[in-house]
Specification:
Pathway: Energy metabolism; oxidative phosphorylation. Residues 1-27 are annotated as: Disordered. The protein has a domain at 28-81: Cytochrome c oxidase, subunit VIb (Arc Repressor Mutant, subunit A). 50% of the residues lie in helices and 0% in strands. It is built from three helices and no strands. It has helices at 29-49, 57-66, 69-81. The longest helix is centred in the middle third of the chain and has 21 residues, at 29-49.
Length: 88
């Protein structure tokens, strides 16, 4: 779940994430962070219920498209260390 290096992008066509009215400004930092949180929350919930994490793929694609990989690596390390500031 949290190993970024092993998370390969799904095969197929990658497109730019659609417009999200919650983030109308040019700066997409908050959008990146929110989709990262949404992905990890949803994966955690689906795993707890014993269901497939396939529906989480959308959030994975969006945050991989918007976020610099250095941020993703740092956030993932923080989650593993238990020091991540976000609520997952």
């Amino acid at each position: 779940m949290l190993d970024v290096d092993s998370q390969k992008p799904p095969k197929g066509k990658w497109s730019t994430p659609p417009f999200d009215p919650r983030f109308p400004n040019q700066n997409q930092t908050r959008n990146c962070y929110q989709n990262f949180l949404d992905y990890h929350r949803r994966v955690k919930r689906m795993n707890r219920r014993g269901k497939s994490t396939q529906p989480c793929e959308y959030y994975f694609r969006v945050f991989h498209s918007l976020c610099p990989m250095s941020w993703v690596r740092r956030w993932t390390e923080q989650i593993q260390d238990g020091t991540f500031a976000g609520k997952i």
